């Protein structure tokens, strides 16, 4: 019985770690954005780690996959199980902290393929911790499946393949796009809310300074505020989240005017997605003027979508000699469309026909 439970735990933990790691390895930049949330001020306030988020993300996801492989083939079982235990303790702490303090809404455990609430993520880690503890107390039952030379080759091969996959998806596109803006998506349709969709329940919270301390009050409390309370701010607290469409933050502004419908109504539209113009690849930006002329000659409406400020936009226009529209959009939404900065998206009446990394600009089907 003990052996059966141990071998089941071995398969369950190994396969789950491989699946979880591969999904995140398919989009390491997306996982690095999630790490940025943990490093930010509302959570752990460790901004000095932010420049290294991508490197940390790649290390963690490759480690996940390789540990899963090592467990399944029984490679150095004591070391493998110790590393798994340390990793799951770290993950369990992070997911508990996120859930209890409500600071990170999605841990990113399975990337964009499967979104879990903070408490669901914590529960998943508790289950994994349970099975890893079974393995920890029964390490002697984990035997290698192959000879040492074969084991070494399999582990080194898994490391090499993971490293290559990480390099490929960072410099091109994810092998599988799980995001709301995948090819074939009609943006207008995925922004719509059905008439019978459940509505959010929102409570207004008022913040007053009382004796030098900011305190929160509900609308019912306003009739009995402490003497000398001074109004500071008001925020909306979501009690029950209603229906949220797959795409809910796509809004394109041109000099304060909403141009979203205009862009989505175009038969041919080429959108250059550059969430941060300062960090945009300069070689790709230098090709935009020629791309604009070629696309315009074929009847395309061309625009840059960016989250950068007006000053940065004007500076970029001057630097690269660009004269077409620069539309403002939320930077987080733009990162969701595509990770590359810049990337290229072709729309047909709001339907995404093609997405291309700046390294593959010659593959655009204009």
UniProtKB/TrEMBL annotation:
Its cellular-component GO annotations read: membrane
* Domain Methylamine utilisation protein MauE residue range list: 3-137
Q: Where's it mainly located?
A: membrane
| Membrane-spanning ranges | 12-29, 49-73, 80-101, 121-138, 150-170
Domain of life of the organism encoding this protein: Bacteria
Write out the annotated subcellular location.
Answer: Membrane
Q: How does it sit in the membrane?
A: Multi-pass membrane protein
Query: By its UniProt entry, which Pfam families does this protein fall under?
Result: MauE (PF07291)
Q: Which GO terms describe its biological process?
A: methylamine metabolic process
The record's annotation in InterPro entries points to:
Methylamine_util_MauE (IPR009908)
Keywords linked to the UniProt accession? Membrane, Transmembrane, Transmembrane helix
Name-wise, this protein is: DoxX protein
